[in-house]
Amino acid sequence: MIDLSSVTKSFGTNAVLRGVDLTIDSGTSMVIIGGSGTGKSVLLKCILGLVTPDAGTITLDGQDVTTQDRDAFLARFGMLFQGGALFDSLPVWQNVAFRLLRGSLKRPAAEARAIAIEKLRRVGLKPEVADLFPAELSGGMQKRVGLARAIAAEPEIIFFDEPTTGLDPIMAGVINELIREIVTEMGATAMTITHDMSSVRAIADNVAMLHDGVIKWTGPVDRMDNSGDPYLDQFIHGRAEGPIEAVR
Amino acid sequence: MILLSPIGTLGRAVLQTLASVGRVALFALSTLTHMLRPPFYGREFGLALLNIGWLSLPVVGLTAIFTGGALALQIYAGGARFNAEAVVPQIVAIGMVRELGPVLVGLMIAARVTSSIAAEIATMKVTEQIDALVTLSTNPMKYLVAPRVLAALIVVPLLVAVGDVIGIAGGYAVATGSLGFNPATYLKNTVDFLEALDIVSSLVKGCAFGFIAALMGCWFGMNSGRGAQGVGRATKGSVEAAAVLILAANFLLTGAFFSL
Ligand SMILES: Nc1ncnc2c1ncn2[C@@H]1O[C@H](COP(=O)(O)OP(=O)(O)OP(=O)(O)O)[C@@H](O)[C@H]1O
Ligand SMILES: [Mg+2]
Q1: Between the CA of residue A220 and those of A30, A60, A200, A207, A209, what are the distances in Å?
Q2: Is the CB of A194 under 6 A from ligand 1?
Q3: Residue A161 Cα, ligand 2 centroid: separation in angstroms?
Q4: Is B14 among the domain residues?
Q5: Is A18 within a domain?
């Protein structure tokens, strides 16, 4: 279980997170929605310790994340970055198998390569892609390689920052299904950021909406449509009018 | 208040400078400890050796040969005013080995290696590749910084040695080719004149300059700002800092070796 309590983070005068409280139960899929620039990516990075919160506590299974052994802690996580963040000096398969080629999970290169190719297949990429370099791929392909890398070592907890952005509708469907599968079959805990409402419905057990630096609404996905929350209603129906100012 | 504000500004600037010196020193210290503790990344280290050492040979060689040649011409012309043309081999040797070899190689490494390390690491930072490394349980200090700095520490002294030899060879070529020196005597004078201390100082300087060059590239890269502009600033800053620090370190080392 991941638990955030009163987490705040500012960049200079820009107060991005202003007291986030959120709980993600183990083995469930949480989807974070919210306007562009509201701090969704920053929130994920705070949990991973890539960004240090100004205040508040984040615990994993009841233990403060800042006091845990970093290596053991990170070994439990996989993360797909919004921009892919592939290592452009390494071919695709070495990106995917990065964790399997070094450190505590190290295994023979041939085995790591086979796993990488299997993970690439699961995100809809052919084995030929394995030997290309990231710069030779399209944006959507890079995103899927990033996804394959995030799930390669089969971590317990996986963060997906906009997994389907830039993908065609069919491929987006495949990826949604994959994320759902990872949660239901492998029992992983997933936290996904997405702007795509059909992805939300396909992936989520629970939904949380981040607005103005706080979680405005959180609850099970089937209560999303009749939440009675004007912010959430405006957001999921994509209306220009409502409490959220569209033009600032 | 108004009178005091320039002092305040000056004070702040001094404090900021001291703070960044402190941070760089801590970074250097942490780099050194990461070099000694596993995991070690052999492939990264090998690539760094290749990039910093082997691929720098052409530029080092060309710089050294032209400098050695020009040095021989200058010493011959200058020496002629005192009827001391014969000192060309000795002065070329001492000039190349003690000063010009290490300094020129250091500056070439700053231009070639520091800039590319800074740009590469800064780009990785800007595109979240450093964050990705961390989430893949890989410490960027160990994976990116330690191999590069260690490789520079080992390979730049060798480059300096190569530069020294090629510089002396440049002087030799000019002196024997167009200034009428006898080849055998030239070589004998060079070898007889150089002392162990000259060579040791040359190599120690190479170590120091290699360390500075790689460290500055890594430091500016890891602390780069955001976007393409951040990468540009990091690259520029790293080369400036490396060049100035190399020249300052050269002064201090020359003082330490030869003014006692
Ligand atoms: N390293 C940083 N330095 C300064 N400001 C930052 C940094 N990272 C994020 N921000 C700021 O924090 C705010 C939230 O950024 P974040 O990337 O979390 O948005 P987001 O909710 O993920 O948006 P999007 O949906 O567009 O990806 C933005 O205003 C951004 O400018
Ligand atoms: Mg984002």
Answers
A1: 9, 21, 11, 6, 12
A2: no
A3: 7
A4: no
A5: yes
Closest by Cβ to B131, choosing from A50, A78, A103: A50
Report the domain count for chain B.
1
**Could you read off the pLDDT of A152-208 as tens digits, one per residue?**
999 999 999 999 998 999 999 999 999 999 999 889 999 999 999 999 999 999 999
pLDDT at B4 over 80: no
What is this structure's pTM? 0.91
Overall number of domains in chain A? 1
Whole-number mean pLDDT of chain B?
Answer: 94
A11 touches chain B (CB under 8 A): no
CATH number at residue A16: 3.40.50.300
| Domain assignment present for A50 | yes
Q: What is the ipTM of this complex?
A: 0.91
Query: Which residues of chain A fall short of a pLDDT of 50?
Result: none
Q: How far B5 CA lies from chain A's nearest CA (Å)?
A: 24
Which domain does A18 fall in, by range?
1-70+189-248
> Ligand 1 atom 5: the closest Cα is on which residue?
A11
Atom of ligand 1 nearest to the CA of A51: 1
Ligand positioned closest to the Cα atom of B126? 1
Q: Is B49 part of a structural domain of the chain? A: yes
Residue A200 falls within a domain, yes or no?
Answer: yes
Question: Is A40's C-beta closer than 6 angstroms to any atom of ligand 1?
Answer: yes
Q: Which residues of B touch A82 (CB under 8 A)?
A: 128
Q: A246 in contact with B at a CB cutoff of 8 Å?
A: no
Average pLDDT over residues B48-73: 95
> How far, in Å, CA of B176 to CA of B178, rounded?
6
Contact A16, A56 (CB under 8 A): no
Contact between A85 and B39 using a beta-carbon 8 Å cutoff? no
Question: By CB neighbour count within 10 A (0-12 exposed, 13-18 middle, 19+ buried), where does B144 fall?
Answer: buried
pLDDT tens by residue, B17-33: 899 999 999 999 999 99
Mean pLDDT across B169-189: 94
Residues in chain B whose beta carbon is closer than 8 A to a beta carbon of chain A? 39, 41, 124, 127-129, 131-138
Q: Does residue B104 surpass a pLDDT of 90?
A: yes
Q: Does any ligand 1 atom lie closer than 6 A to the CB of residue A32?
A: no
Let me know if B257 is exposed, middle or buried by CB neighbors in 10 A (0-12, 13-18, 19+).
middle
Rama region for A39: left / alpha / beta (φ>0; ψ in -120 to 50; rest): left
Containing domain of residue B61, as a range? 41-255
Q: Is residue B1 part of a domain?
A: no
Question: Do the domain assignments include residue B56?
Answer: yes
In a domain, A100, yes or no: no
Dihedral (Cα; A190, A195, A199, A201), 10-degree rounding = 90
